[in-house]
Fold this sequence. Notes:
With 594 residues, this protein is α+β, with helices and mostly antiparallel strands.
Amino acid sequence: MRDGVKLYIILYVPLDADRAHPYPLLMERTPYSAGPRGETNYPVRGPGPSRELSEEKYIFVYQDVRGRYLSEGQFEEVTPALAAAALGKPRRAGAGPAPHDESTDTYDTIEWLLKNVPGNNGKVGILGISYPGFYATASLPGAHPALKAVSPQAPVTDEFIGDDARHNGAFFLLDNFDFTNYFDVPRPQPVAKYDELFDLKITDAYQFFLKLGPIKNANAPQYFNNRARIWNEYLQHDTYDAYWQARNIRAHLTGVRPAVLTVGGWYDAEDMYGALHTYQAIEKQNPGATNRLVMGPWTHGAWSRPDWSKFGPYDFGQNTAQYYRQTLETPFFNYYLKGKGTFGAPEATMFDTGLNQWKDYPTWPPKVAANRSFYLSEAGQLSNTMPTTGAPADEYISDPAHPVPYTAAIQGGRNNEYLIEDQRFAAQRPDVLTYQTEPLAADLTVAGPLGVDLWVSTSGTDADFVVKLIDVLPDDAPAPMPNPQRLNLGGAQRLVRADVFRGRFRNSFERPEAFQPNVPTEVKYELNDVLHTFKKGHRLLVQVQSTWFPLVDRNPQQFVNISTAEAADFKKATIRIYHEPGHASALTLPVVGP
Ligand code: PG9
């Protein structure tokens, strides 16, 4: 690299690669170890990221990023990007210590590969899922001219607002505790082995984290013991401060030249936000760019699995992962790197999770969408009419000692199915409010982000709000999809989208504010996009609650520093949701069609 640091790569070169048969370079940059892949991946993937790409033949390149596995240097959490002026060609020797980031490391690697790998055709592609998705995105600012095609897949993009670390300021306890345990082990020298700070066999994550108590207890000697740099950084930076702002790669996505194919999953519990917002930022900031989006019925990275035709009780009736690889990913790289065939994919290829089918859109979100508000009304009704009478607010007691579980099937780690799970378990709790429409007279397709507008109060000085949009299947419904397990899904409350908002950030992510106890206050935020057709006879259901444990840490419900809070700071609070003129709570959905 331009500062003298050496990064480790593994290459797989087709045996016939030479001047007469040159191949493009297809690269993944990763914090999860460069390899080896050939033998261990065979026959599922071969040396490439998929079986399909392996069979096409490329020069596959895997690189350990700085400070990981066999690369030198210091690992940085979502490395902050340099200002545009510092990018581009390496500086001349003697020009002083060269600044670097992931964009310059990618640039320098490409420069090295082109010169040192015989039989390359001078064209480079980059792809990666999740953290490697972030590195794929980071190849775009000041991109090397040989870089022609980039596919950020579930890319980590904005860790405070919507990806792994926090959502709207609320800390993702279960994932972060697990992830930083092995990702953040001190390593003074390059190492080849996987490591972790402590070895725990958690069987019931709900009980484990309840017993753990306030989050500061995670630094007890038997756990992080103050050795985990990233864990401490996450907790120390509990507002959208300079640390997080520097890690928002979206701000740097200008002047994009390579073709981009961003990929994400509607059931991705880690970086769904990243996929949607990487696509959006490139689209907005680069009107002329070749920029496309694919969203399928996938958990984190499920499109790379040999088969993805079912999830939870639902069957998609086709191998959606293979469909994606055969019709989108492989032709994308073949076209832009080998000039092979054509690539006629639309701007957005999106899976409708209610109709169980792929749809094409010329823009995303579709321009034809009209916004329709669903008001949280008295007697648990969800209605298109704004409330006209001053009915009393609904209320519940949110008790940090008895938080609402995020799933009915608690395990040691995250239950990946929680984003599609039947929510009847939650509806039965006294601290979950429910609002439901009548059965729909016609199909209703929702396409795009969802607007939450709540009027709330708390008897405390802070509170979290979790809002869920749910598709209620009719009691006597035929199975909504092929259902080989013959499960009885009648009356099931199928989760379509949900997310949390930490109330102290309602006016600013940078400057949190306390609530005035018991004063109606507006909390507005956006839920990630959906493409879901609610079928005729189904109902829409909205649930509201203030805990989602242990997916999200508990809010003490007092305006205190949560990272250093003591057990005694966690207090019960009475939460009210208002539905009166002037304080109408609603979920606004972008509806397509009549
Ligand atoms: N989504 C993952 C991650 C990235 C950064 C922090 C924590 C988790 C990943 O799978 O790479």
